[in-house]
Amino acid sequence: MNNEILFISDLHISLEKPEITRRFLSFLENRASKASAVYILGDLFDAWVGDDDPTPPNNKIRKQLKQLTNSGTKVYFQQGNRDFLLGNKFCEDTGVTLIDDFIVVDLGGVPTLLTHGDLLCTDDLPYQAFRAKSHTQEWKNYVLSKPLLLRLLAARWYRLRSYFHKRNKTQEIMDVNQDTVINVMRDYNCLRLIHGHTHRPALHNFKINGQPAQRFVLSAWSKETAEVLCWNSTGYKIETIRN
Hints:
Blueprint: E1 5-8, H1 18-31, E2 37-40, H2 58-70, E3 74-78, H3 88-94, E4 97-99, E5 103-107, E6 110-115, H4 125-134, H5 137-144, H6 148-167, H7 171-174, H8 178-187, E7 192-195, E8 202-208, E9 211-217, E10 227-232, E11 235-240
Parallel strand pairs: 1-2, 2-3, 3-4, 6-7, 7-9
Antiparallel strand pairs: 1-10, 5-6, 8-9, 10-11
Helix pairs in contact: 1-2
């Protein structure tokens, strides 16, 4: 039995990025189908305004995910800062399992903490304030009660505003806070962490209470490159998806 587990994040799929959509659909059909499980650690979509949105390429994504889960591969989805409105209807349509902001899985006998990564960027105070507000059920219900067209227009405006706000922030503010990383890993009793969000793929080695610890940062996908963190009984590798 294939025990390979794949991790991806930050594809930011949208109508304006057909190359990434095509590569992801091919990945689901040809690569993910050979794995026992796939973890999508947030920001699969550049913006998700509700499970009722049929805007292309959403339905193609739903269909291909459903085919994958029907074939026996388990797919787990962790909401990111761009697709945190993704909900139960999407999961029913695709067979995907929605997981919490922090979850611990076993990788080769080592408890491994998974998260999107935005909750680790605690130096970005304005974003953390917005996140706290926007993740309340009251705020989500308010947004999802609006007409779909209005939500789509609002998403475009938020993306534009986010672009200009990021231009005024330092890279350090938008990266994780190492003290937060260590505290969270301590809270979950883990010495290995996998996350995305920062678009700074790397493997960081450090220590927690004198013990060696690791932080894997997943790569964001682009029209030129796409990477997957692959884990099996022999260890891990970074695989480039070329087709």
